[in-house]
Amino acid sequence: MKPDAEPSADPLAVLSRMHTQLRILVSALTVAPDTPQVAAMLAGLADTTAAATELLSAAEPGTLAALRRAFGHAQARRHNETASELAAAHGRLALLLHRDRPRRIAAAEEPTLRWRLEP
Questions:
Q1: What's the rounded Cα separation, in Å, for the pair 7 and 14?
Q2: Alpha carbon of 47 to those of 8, 21, 85, 109: distances in Å?
Q3: Which of 7, 78, 105, 112 has the most crowded CB, counting CB atoms within 10 A?
Q4: Which of 48, 102, 38 is CA-nearest to residue 74?
């Protein structure tokens, strides 16, 4: 990336922004689907999707397909289906973003910390 380039031109920044938008939007759709805020969030996600279309079509076409289905459901005001497709896109995008950062091998051997209240 060039130093004078806009930060949104960074593919990872665009995908990270989309990941955050999806996480927040799924929750908002569940709580208050018919609000102007959700409509604004969907419009913002549509803009981010447009910016990432080429990248997603090459790297993760399933995510792009889920987003397109979600926008179709949103236009038809099928909120549950919209939230389901956005959650699916969020999961697929999370796998794409974390593909190069697998868990540490030693983490499998570490004990799980358990919290308990002492009597």
A1: 9
A2: 12, 11, 17, 43
A3: 78
A4: 38
Q: How far is CA 51 from CA 73, 86, 113, in A?
A: 21, 17, 42
Q: Nearest CA to 45 among 68, 11, 65?
A: 68
Local structure of 6: helix, strand or coil = coil
Q: pLDDT per residue over 48-63, tens digit each?
A: 999 999 999 998 999 9
Averages of pLDDT over each 10 residues, the chain, 119 residues: 49 92 95 94 96 92 95 95 95 84 62 64
Tokens 């999806």 -> residue: 22
Other C-beta atoms closer than 10 Å to the C-beta of 52 total 21
Of 90, 79, 92, 88, the closest CA to residue 28 belongs to 79
Residues 6 or more apart in contact with residue 57 via CB below 8 angstroms: 64
Pinpoint the alpha helices (H) of 1-119: 11-31, 36-59, 61-75, 79-98
